Amino acid sequence: MDNNLISLEYIFITSIVIALSFTGCIYGIAYYLSYDNFSMTAVAFFPILSLFIAFMIAAIILFLSLKKYKKVKQVNHIANFYYVICTFILSAIMIFLIDVFVYALIDKTLSLKYAETLQIISRQYAVTSKNIDYMKKIPFILQSGVMIFTGLLAGSFSSLFILSQYKNIKTQPDLQSI
Predict the structure, then answer these.
(1) Which of 11, 21, 35, 117 is the most exposed place for a label (fewest CB within 10 A)?
(2) Of 7, 167, 13, 11, the residue nearest 76 (C-alpha)
(3) Would you call 128 helix, strand, or coil by DSSP?
(4) Which stretches of 34-108 are DSSP H helices?
(5) pTM of the model
(6) Which pairs count as long-range contacts for 65-71, CB under 8 Å and 24+ apart, including other chains?
(7) According to the model, what pLDDT value does residue 105 have?
(8) pLDDT single digits (tens) 4-49
(9) pLDDT tens, 66-123?
(10) Domain extents for the chain?
(11) pLDDT at 126 over 70
(12) End-to-end distance of the chain based on CA atoms, in angstroms?
């Protein structure tokens, strides 16, 4: 098999794992919070929570994937930066596609409940709800898209830092006890 295809296979599999685990976590938490309708606190903190989850999932999975990828000897490795960029782009596309698929074919109620709670909050502050009416028509994850993709990007690049620290710790010899 061509070495470049092996690298692309690692990138593709890593992107799938990140996208599926992220959307699974986000939808699980969102359905739990929407069981009794979204509270104001849940709506306020959900974008921050999704940023944190995207950051953690991307950082951990990419670190483990890069570590495993670098151990493969028969591959001409691509640079870690390009590996992370390609994985980020593919993960973002897959998260978007999964979200659109869930919204179009499975369930639209989560987006509606979230947008309706935002509309209730905006009425309390006398804000017009034209933008919130528009939000009812888009998939759920895209409603918090900026925070999610920021967390995904930050987590992706923090995996490079974690990997470099891991290499530094691993190459340092252990102190011998007397």
Answers:
(1) 35
(2) 7
(3) coil
(4) 40-71, 80-101
(5) 0.81
(6) 65/10, 65/13, 65/14, 65/17, 66/159, 66/160, 66/163, 67/163, 67/166, 68/10, 69/7, 69/10
(7) 86
(8) 677 888 889 999 999 999 999 988 988 888 887 777 777 878 888 8
(9) 888 888 877 777 888 888 899 999 999 999 999 889 888 888 788 888 777 777 777 7
(10) 3-168
(11) no
(12) 50
CA distances from 21 to 5, 18, 98 (A): 24, 5, 11
**Three-class SS of residue 144?**
coil
Whole-number Å distance between alpha carbons of 155 and 132: 29
Look at the block and give the residue holding tokens 């919204």: 103
Cβ atoms of 166 and 63 within 8 Å: the answer is yes
Burial 91-118 (b: 16+ CB within 10 A, else e): bbebbbebbeebbeeeeeebbebbbbbb
In this predicted model, what pLDDT tens digit does every residue of 127-177 receive, in sequence order?
Answer: 566 666 777 778 878 777 778 888 888 888 888 888 878 776 766 665 555
